[in-house]
Amino acid sequence: MLEQLNQALFLLINATPESPEWLIKLAIFIAKDLISIVPLLIAILWLWGQRQHMAAQRMMVIKTALALIISVSLSWIIGHLFPHDRPFVTGFGYNFMHHAPDDSFPSDHGTVIFTFALAFLLWHRVWSGVLLFAIGCVIAWSRVYLGVHWPLDMLGGLLVGLCSCLLAQMVWNLLGKQMYASLHQAYRVCFALFIRKGWVRD
After folding, report:
1. Which of 9, 32, 67, 106 is the one with CA 20 to 30 A from 138?
2. What is the mean pLDDT of residues 155-169?
3. What CATH code is carried by the domain that includes residue 123?
């Protein structure tokens, strides 16, 4: 029943040879490159901002990074425990983007972007979390549209992201102060020159 629903949703979203070429090219850009917003925003929040907000921003960055580490690890474990072929491996639908024929559930891209969006929703601002969640949905659509993922792969990524944020908060409650102090000290040593020049925040 669930697999039938998965296939039916896939066919509703998946592109066909009649789909506009410009839309397929746009979907390829979204599927491959939009995920780069994750490391970009993490770097920005750690390095720059109003002085009175830097500690809060960096704590948020550490919690987000922790959630991402947990989510990617969980995704890898689940993928090996419950392997599921990608649509093009089974010859289902149409494929418009080259991808290795590895396990599809849960989606790594979906896991990362939804973990990131939920982290912002929980620990940053509601508006930023909602915006990133919308970006996550667009990335999820593009990878199903291009035929490299099933819709439920993306739902799996969302659920893994939610669990990972909850686990990250639990770890932070136990070790957060120590983690922040250690990482901030390491940053001050490694970026001492840039901090002195005023290129990045202390």
Report:
1. 67
2. 97
3. 1.20.144
